[in-house]
Design brief:
two-stranded antiparallel ribbon; 7 helices; 4 strands; mainly alpha
Length: 244
């Protein structure tokens, strides 16, 4: 059943813009895909234009680009260590994509693709696969020792190993749901109070004030969720590299 246009959930409806069907597969270019492309284009433009003709005394845009770089580099350095440097581009790309996706979604008329579990799960699954590959490439089958906590009594191994494996397999689920749930809840609340503003007319001052406060809060949440996604990615790389 289609979601009614008056519903706060209507804003999350994925709509086909360019229908593309290959056999039984629907590969249509949707509004979600469009805003992902926009996010990537804006990130590219931001980084390229900000660092073109870099100056010793940086401009405001150059300062923002350098701040973004140093922020993620510091995150990787502090949580993964020197051995995490090769994975900095991956973490930086994830951070910027989630950050720009979150911030773009706050613009009226845009689409919140990070409020869709299929998108956030795809990102989380990419992180999960990358981290697991790094673990096996660096340690071979010794990587499986990660599921046996150090100092564990031998009698506890048969009980704890399945729990550790299950916990590891649930990482992409927890990582994706955290981002999806926060973004979806925030955007739903914004639209609900916006509806009160329109329906109450002159008396909609209070809902308007709440909505303004919510927008400011959502900007904070947008940045915080990008940080959380990136920091957890770093911690997963730490586990894969150091096995603890």
């Amino acid at each position: 059943m289609a979601v009614a246009e008056t519903s706060p959930l209507h804003q999350f409806t994925v709509e086909s813009l360019v229908p593309i069907h290959v056999g039984t597969f629907n590969l249509s270019f949707s509004n979600s895909a469009l805003f992902m492309v926009i996010a990537v284009a804006l990130i590219t433009a931001f980084l390229v234009l900000s660092t073109r003709g870099a100056r010793l005394v940086p401009t405001r845009w150059q300062s923002l680009a350098e701040l973004s770089y140093e922020f993620v580099a510091g995150m990787v350095r502090e949580n993964v260590g020197h051995e995490g440097r090769p994975y900095f581009p991956f973490v930086f790309s994830i951070f910027m994509f989630v950050l720009f996706g979150n911030l773009i979604s706050l613009i009226p008329g845009s689409f919140a693709f990070t409020a869709h579990i299929v998108v956030t799960f795809a990102l989380a699954l990419t992180v999960f696969i990358a981290v697991t590959l790094v673990g096996f490439i660096r340690h071979g089958f010794h990587f499986l020792s990660f599921f046996v906590p150090r100092g564990m009594p031998a009698l506890m191994v048969p009980l704890m190993v399945p729990i550790e494996i299950l916990s590891y397999l649930f990482r992409p689920i927890s990582l994706s749901v955290r981002l999806f749930a926060n973004m979806m809840a925030g955007h739903t609340m914004l639209l609900v109070f916006a509806g009160f503003i329109l329906s109450l007319g002159v008396f909609g001052v209070l809902p308007l004030a709440i909505d303004v406060a919510l927008i400011l809060f959502e900007v904070l949440v947008a940045v915080l969720q990008a940080y959380v996604f990136a920091i957890l990615t770093c911690l997963y790389f730490q586990d894969a590299i150091h096995l603890h």
